[in-house]
Specification:
heterodimer, A: alpha+beta, 5-stranded antiparallel β-sheet, two-stranded antiparallel sheet, 3 helices, 7 strands, about 30% helix, about 25% strand, globular, B: alpha+beta, Muramoyl-pentapeptide Carboxypeptidase, domain 2, 4-stranded antiparallel β-sheet, 4 helices, 4 strands, about 40% helix
Chain lengths: ~190, ~170
């Protein structure tokens, strides 16, 4: 049950940051920001170690009284930071590892998405790149697919009564993965 | 068995399609001292850079997907070895034949039977057509290096088909 998940680019700016209690987001942003120093420390410490002992999962970065912060770095120096609730003692290390592995796989899929430019923010809200889907597709509980009269393409409607809007479909996969991690342990 | 040729066919069509939109020499034709065309025209340079940038984007995605599980790159040479072994095997089902370096940031990767040139000819036939078939692969190498944190300039040269050399220049910072 992650409380906050962040993806930081190798130049140390956030590509994606989301926390579940949406009030007080700034506290989590600050926590992630301070954890970057610990991540850099761990990476440089690992640089001096032998090749076999270097791995992507960095482990517990630092604990606070309410939260614990875990880190993971990929080969392309993209960092994942996860903040979990301290009260949730049932979370074991290998569960955190598997959550990070899933996050890494989702991030790799985002990278392979042709509509994603490397270095951009990962977003699935309206404001990202749009495209028309030529065949009906289910995108989420609040949207439905209609075919526009007289047109060969169908568009996605964001909610009943609103004019037709186009939504990016592929980048929702990353968002959904993060949502599932916040609801339950994967 | 058919998987290996799928990419080769797609690549051939990509090159043919991009070149087809540039039938006449553009306004950038430069005449040499003997009054003949020297070098590529602007239209052809555009097509080459489009091919290279396509390869770059693919290389960026591959550079993210292929290295897995271990943070194995301690230095530049390890990254280049990864390109020669894992990347080349993933894309062309064979390893690079030789990797040479001067340890000053210049690496020469040589492939003695480059799969994209193999079906074309063996020897000096079509030598002047070969560079456009290498642009995508140059971009691929540059993109993979970029994801792994190395800014570079990649060029390719062909002396005789299907042997080709990719030169990777990593500027010292």
């Amino acid at each position: 049950m992650a409380v906050c998940i962040a993806v930081i680019a190798k130049e140390n700016y956030p590509l994606y940051i989301r926390s579940t209690p949406t009030e007080n987001e700034l506290k989590f942003h600050y926590m992630v920001h301070t954890s970057l120093d610990v991540v850099d420390e761990k990476i440089s410490a690992m640089g001096k170690a032998l090749v076999d002992q270097r791995e992507l999962y960095l482990g517990l970065l630092y604990p606070t009284e309410d939260y614990k912060v875990y880190g993971y770095v990929t080969n392309s120096k993209v960092k994942f930071v996860m903040v979990v609730d301290s009260s949730n003692t049932a979370l074991r290390d290998n569960e955190i590892r598997s959550m990070f592995r899933k996050l890494h796989n989702s991030y790799t899929d985002v990278m392979c998405n042709p509509f994603y430019n490397p270095g951009d923010r990962i977003q699935s809200s309206p404001g990202g790149p749009y495209f028309l889907c030529p065949y009906p597709v289910q995108v989420g509980p609040t949207s439905c697919v209609r075919s526009s009269p007289g047109g060969p393409y169908s568009c996605v409607r964001s909610s009943p009564g609103e004019p037709y809007s186009l939504c990016p479909i592929q980048s929702r996969a990353f968002d959904n993965m993060v949502t599932s991690m916040m609801i339950q342990v994967c | 068995m058919a998987d290996t040729v799928l990419f080769e066919f797609l690549h051939t069509e990509m090159v043919a399609e991009l070149w087809a939109h540039d039938p006449d020499p553009g306004s950038g034709v430069s005449a040499g001292s003997r009054g003949e065309e020297v070098g590529a025209t602007t239209g052809q340079k555009m097509s080459l850079s489009v091919l290279e940038s396509m390869g770059f984007r693919v290389g960026q995605a591959l550079g993210e997907r292929l290295p897995r599980e271990t943070l194995a790159f301690r230095e530049e040479l390890d990254v280049l070895k990864f390109l020669c072994k894992d990347l080349w095997v993933a894309v062309f089902q064979k390893q690079m034949d030789s990797l040479r370096t001067n340890h000053q940031g210049t690496y020469v990767l040589q492939d003695n039977s480059f799969p994209l040139l193999l079906p074309m000819a063996s020897g000096l036939q079509y030598l002047e057509e070969a560079p456009k078939f290498l642009a995508f692969t140059c971009g691929l190498l540059r993109g993979a290096l970029c994801t792994l944190g190395i800014e570079s300039v990649v060029t390719a040269s062909v002396a005789a088909l299907p042997v080709c050399k990719f030169q990777v220049l990593i500027p010292k910072s």
